[in-house]
Amino acid sequence: EKQFNLKNITKVYPDHSGGTTALKNATLNFKTGEFIAILGKSGSGKSTLLNMLSGIDRPTSGEIIYDNRPLHSLTESALTAWRGKNIGIIFQFFQLIPTLTILENIILPMDLCSSYPTGNRKNIALDLLNQVEIGEHANKLPVDLSGGQQQRAAIARALANNPPFIVADEPTGNLDTYNANKVVELFRKMTDDGKTIIMVTHDTELAKLTDRIITIEDGIITSDLTSRCIN
Ligand code: ADP
Ligand code: ADP
């Protein structure tokens, strides 16, 4: 069971007038199999928090410990390799590569991480596409899929290297209610398979469908509530 701990994380973006403190002394622990919402208004520091968690950006101070190892001890290339194997990332605007088919979009992260023998990757990718119910669209280009289908493809891509943690930045922000619920349903299934989902949202109703709601206001974690009996 992999633990993910943030200890007193502060992030200051420098500017010409003292800087913007986007995150102030955030301390959080994530466990395997949790479905977590990070709830906050625009500009409250949600994306900054996700960037710290995924090692896309580094904190100004504080420590991030993953599986008993401090992330700041990793070089830039080691951090990239770590992210590839341990964190799946889902964006609001899908960010599929438009010139690759859906199947090729899923195989690409496997190629980058060499996580499976070359000959197995296509079948693993097809299996993931079936799990998110778009197997029949494998050979289409992203532009030929609906928004909801593209986001499901992006979820399959995030699962490509079987990472224990998935971080999703407003994954339903560009979807209608039907497709937003479909995404949450898939996340729920993934947590049942032992994945940890950390989902950023400003939608309170959506947050209520998770196990734990962390509220952030002006860079400060103001509450951290478990909304179901998950033990
Ligand atoms: P949210 O995701 O909740 O909308 P962000 O984490 O994007 O919030 O932003 C938090 C604060 O940090 C905001 O005041 C924003 O303007 C500022 N900020 C975010 N990214 C940068 C950056 N790269 N450079 C400077 N300021 C930034
Ligand atoms: P596919 O099987 O091609 O992935 P979907 O899973 O998107 O298709 O759709 C499954 C069913 O849900 C279809 O009957 C479709 O009409 C319906 N549906 C799809 N998108 C929406 C939506 N935005 N609102 C309501 N119903 C939808």
From TrEMBL:
Q: Which InterPro entries is this protein grouped with?
A: AAA+_ATPase, ABC_transporter-like_ATP-bd, ABC_transporter-like_CS, MacB-like_ATP-bd, P-loop_NTPase
Query: Domain ABC transporter spans what residues?
Result: 4-230
Q: Which UniProt keywords apply?
A: ATP-binding, Nucleotide-binding, Transport
Q: Which GO terms describe its molecular function?
A: ATP binding
Supply the SMART domains for this chain: AAA
Does the keyword section mention S-adenosyl-L-methionine? no
Q: Which family does it belong to?
A: Belongs to the ABC transporter superfamily.
- Protein name, please? ATP-binding cassette domain-containing protein
